[in-house]
Amino acid sequence: MSKGVFSRRSLFALAPLVLAACATQQVGSGPQNATVSRVEAYFRTVNLQDAPFTQIWPNGASGGGLITYRPGYLDMRFTTPHEMELKASERSAVFTDAANGSVTHIGLGHSALGMLLGNPVRLSGPVMVSDVQQQRGLVQISLTRADNPSQGLVTLRFRDEQGALSLYDVRILDAQRKLTQIRLD
């Protein structure tokens, strides 16, 4: 085996470890801390009431309806593909599927969604900010659980217009690496 092939194979073998280490670094620079503070302030005052949303599940299927969110509370009422509802508070959620009559209770202590249901939402301590990206008019921030980053990653995308943040996209990557996207219309 040539030295060049060994080096490339070694690099490819180590790439996932290097990327994982980068993805779970705690954010800590001044401008990034200021952005994290702005996002926390947004979540202290946000009050979405019956805002239209579209959700894309990991299998590519989509649905939508109306969402209500305020600190510590979430209510997603799906009208498509059929009537469903997810009601969540700080520690638990209840998912009701009208099509089959099922009711599922979900603990949020270790889920990605639970990171956004504190009252107030705190982006420190048990929640770790793993990435902050900013460009003109846009802010993106990624969050994970500090004690177990492999449980999932939440990426929030905001419009940043005249100093005011407005959430428009939430991406949830679960522990099985499946992506769910929620777009606020």
Characteristics of this structure?
single chain; globular; alpha+beta; eleven-stranded antiparallel β-sheet; disordered N terminus; 11 strands
Describe this structure in words.
The protein is of the alpha+beta class and 185 residues long. It has one domain: outer membrane lipoprotein receptor (LolB), chain A (Clam). It contains two helices and eleven strands. The protein has helices spanning 3-23, 30-45, and strands at 48-56, 62-70, 73-80, 84-89, 92-97, 102-107, 127-135, 138-145, 152-161, 164-174, 179-184. Strand 3 (73-80) and strand 4 form a beta hairpin. The protein is globular and about 50 Å long. The model is unreliable at 1-26 (pLDDT under 50).
Query: How many distinct helices?
Result: 2
For CATH, the homologous superfamily is named as: Lipoprotein localisation LolA/LolB/LppX
Give the second-level CATH assignment, the architecture.
Clam
Main β-sheet description = 11 strands, antiparallel
CATH class: Mainly Beta
Q: In sequence order, what are the helices and strands, one letter per element? A: HHEEEEEEEEEEE
Helix content range:
10-25%
Low-confidence stretches: 1-26
Q: What's the alpha carbon Rg, rounded to whole Å?
A: 18 Å
CATH topology: outer membrane lipoprotein receptor (LolB), chain A
As an assembly, this protein is: single chain
Structural class of the secondary elements?
A: alpha+beta
Number of domains: 1
Q: What is the first-to-last residue Cα distance?
A: 55 Å
- The best one-word shape is globular
